[in-house]
């Protein structure tokens, strides 16, 4: 059986299992998810989706009007014909609601909460239900704030292991989640999460990667690096991690451990505050070297606050370089 991630246009991701002898559309239908289709014969094109990752057989029973040769070369598939030959990621151009599915919800409890610095909290939650949680490294969930009806969105900072997942959470003065975690939270407290969500996730590595993290935007990258450490990569990977103040720097030991495990991974960290005692000062853009952009043959992943995303986008344009792919996620803190 292969694991297929179906990414819907409303941000919801659902995972299904597909055997080698069934089409993706049939596998989805078997598991209660109705990918839009009419003919099932490769003639109408209604079930056309985009395969972002994985190996698959396109099938032979379709016509040019339903899927052209150019579309197939780009990665488009007809799910009524597609048969997976590995785990795959498929983008579905429809909402999860239209496909009669919804984001999954899970109950778990706090296994650890630690204040890594004045600005960053590490949260781990664990539960039997989470052993069924599957997500793409880089995605996020909506975590319920205990004692309220509100949720906050956080990227996973680890892969799921033995029913446990972790997050890096910015400690926002007056923030609803921050106030709970710093003042009330203890091991064993119940929490709910709904997801996974988001289109920011690690794709197949086909060229060098440049990873750019701002503050707790480091979280999705540590999850990605766990995956890369497990599977390896023949391409060079470089992470630049930028923060505002010295005390914002966290998880450097973890990054060092990744550098020891992943032969072609390197990283640097910089602090924007000019009064910093850290060796590298300034913004992330000041530490991007020409080799990191590889004359455009590079996939750039960026997670940080909106001003950082805009600054990096402008910097790359000014270099006259267009990366092969540029994936980014903006985040902003929420107060009470």
UniProtKB/TrEMBL annotation:
Keywords: Iron, Iron-sulfur, Metal-binding
InterPro entries linked to this entry: 2Fe-2S_ferredoxin-like_sf, 2Fe-2S_ferredoxin-type, 2Fe2S_fd_BS, BenC-like_FAD_NAD-bd, Beta-grasp_dom_sf, Cbr1-like_FAD-bd_dom, FAD-bd_FR_type, Flavoprot_Pyr_Nucl_cyt_Rdtase
Source species taxonomy: Bacteria, Pseudomonadati, Pseudomonadota, Gammaproteobacteria, Pseudomonadales
Cofactor(s) listed: [2Fe-2S] cluster
All residue ranges annotated as the 2Fe-2S ferredoxin-type domain in the record: 2-96
Name of the protein: Benzoate 1,2-dioxygenase electron transfer component BenC
FAD-binding FR-type domain segment(s): 103-203
């Amino acid at each position: 059986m292969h694991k297929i991630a179906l990414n819907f246009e409303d941000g919801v991701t659902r995972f299904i299992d597909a055997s080698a002898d069934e089409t993706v559309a049939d596998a989805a239908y078997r598991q209660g998810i109705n990918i839009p289709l009419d003919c099932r014969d490769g003639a109408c094109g209604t079930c056309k989706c985009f395969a972002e990752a994985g190996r698959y057989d396109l099938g032979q029973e379709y016509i040019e009007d339903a899927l052209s040769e150019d579309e197939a070369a780009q990665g488009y598939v007809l799910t009524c014909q597609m048969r997976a030959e590995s785990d795959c990621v498929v983008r579905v151009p429809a909402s999860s609601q239209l496909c009669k599915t919804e984001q999954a919800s899970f109950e778990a409890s706090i296994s650890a909460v630690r204040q890594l610095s004045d600005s960053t909290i590490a949260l781990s939650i664990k539960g039997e239900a989470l052993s069924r949680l599957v997500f793409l490294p880089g995605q996020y969930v909506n975590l319920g704030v205990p004692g309220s009806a509100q949720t906050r969105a956080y990227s996973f900072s680890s892969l799921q292991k033995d029913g446990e997942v972790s997050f890096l959470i910015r400690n926002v003065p007056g923030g609803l989640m921050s106030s709970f975690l710093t003042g009330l939270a203890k091991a064993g407290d119940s929490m709910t999460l709904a997801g996974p969500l988001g289109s920011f996730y690690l794709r197949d590595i086909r060229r060098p990667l440049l990873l750019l993290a701002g503050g707790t935007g480091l979280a999705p990258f540590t999850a990605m690096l766990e995956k890369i450490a497990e599977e390896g990569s023949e391409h060079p990977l470089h992470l630049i991690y930028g923060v505002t103040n010295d005390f914002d720097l966290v998880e450097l030991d973890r990054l060092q451990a990744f550098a020891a495990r992943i032969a072609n991974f390197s990283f640097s960290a910089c602090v924007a505050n000019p009064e910093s005692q850290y060796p590298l000062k300034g913004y992330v853009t000041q530490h991007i070297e020409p080799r990191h952009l590889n004359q455009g043959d590079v996939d750039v992943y960026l997670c940080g606050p909106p001003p950082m995303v805009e600054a990096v986008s402008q910097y790359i344009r000014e270099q006259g370089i267009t990366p092969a792919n540029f994936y980014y996620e903006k985040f902003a803190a929420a107060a009470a």
